TrEMBL record:
Protein function: Key component of the proton channel; it plays a direct role in the translocation of protons across the membrane.
GO cellular component: plasma membrane; proton-transporting ATP synthase complex
PANTHER family in alphabetical order: ATP SYNTHASE SUBUNIT A, CHLOROPLASTIC
Name of the molecule in the record: ATP synthase subunit a
Length: 240
């Protein structure tokens, strides 16, 4: 199991998603894959961090120490990011955007620790895209009402309605594919480096990890959240 989850260096390196064990649900065979296990590891780490952060903030000091500084810095940076894009609407969506941001970022950089990034599986990124799509449509119907939504679909002329519908449907697909393709490409490149060079690639690929895992992972996280906030802002727009 460990060899299927961890991207260990060597000629036997494998980046494919593998089924670890199966179970039956209503007569259908379901599999627990390496993606599930890697995502569970990421979630356990995040939940542990959140619990520790919650307890620390509950007993916060007037003069913050190291860990309290880190927590406050993360919260402040995420709040500023959401505030800068969504303005007065930021309090409603700050928790969702911040949670998605942290989860995607940790998933993207998990490759540094030898895991196969969960976001290199389209099943994960597509689910994130669908969540965003549902949130967009919910707020669109809530604020623009049915009349406003129909009017938007027929803008500028009713003949454009099919194109506007396709444009809306393409939102979760474009969001998920962009994140998935960029993370998967970085994972494949690092796998090729380790697989072809073997023990020679023990130390120097750290520079590549900085780019493909840290830099590219952070950029793709930011892009996903920025587009999410932009789409939600458009859904909140109503005629004066």
């Amino acid at each position: 199991m460990s060899s299927a989850i961890l991207m260990a260096s060597g000629a036997d390196i494998d980046i494919m998603v593998h089924g670890l064990f199966s179970y039956e649900v209503f007569g259908q065979t379901c599999w627990i894959t390496t993606t599930h296990v890697c995502m569970l590891i990421v979630m356990i780490i995040l939940i542990g961090f959140f619990i520790a952060a919650n307890r620390k903030i509950k007993h916060a000091k007037e003069v913050p120490d190291g860990f309290q500084n880190v927590v406050e810095l993360i919260v402040e940076m995420l709040d500023k990011m959401v505030q800068g894009v969504m303005g007065i609407n930021s309090p409603k969506f700050a928790n969702y955007i911040s949670t998605v941001f942290i989860f995607i970022l940790m998933s993207n950089i998990s490759g540094i620790f030898g895991l196969r990034p969960p976001t290199a599986d389209y099943g994960v990124t597509f689910a994130l895209g669908v969540m965003t799509f549902c949130l967009i449509q919910f707020n669109k119907f809530k604020h623009q009402k049915v009349k406003g939504v129909l009017k938007g679909l027929c803008d500028p002329w009713p003949i454009w309605a099919p194109i506007n519908i396709i444009s809306d449907i393409a939102v979760p697909i474009s969001l998920s594919l962009r994140l998935f393709a960029n993370i998967l490409s970085g994972t494949i490149i690092m796998a090729l480096v380790y697989g072809l060079l073997g023990w020679i690639a023990t130390f120097w690929p750290a520079v590549l990890h900085v780019y493909f895992d840290l830099f590219s992972g952070a950029i793709q996280t930011y892009v996903f959240c920025m587009l999410t906030m932009t789409y939600i802002n458009q859904a909140l727009e109503t005629e004066e």
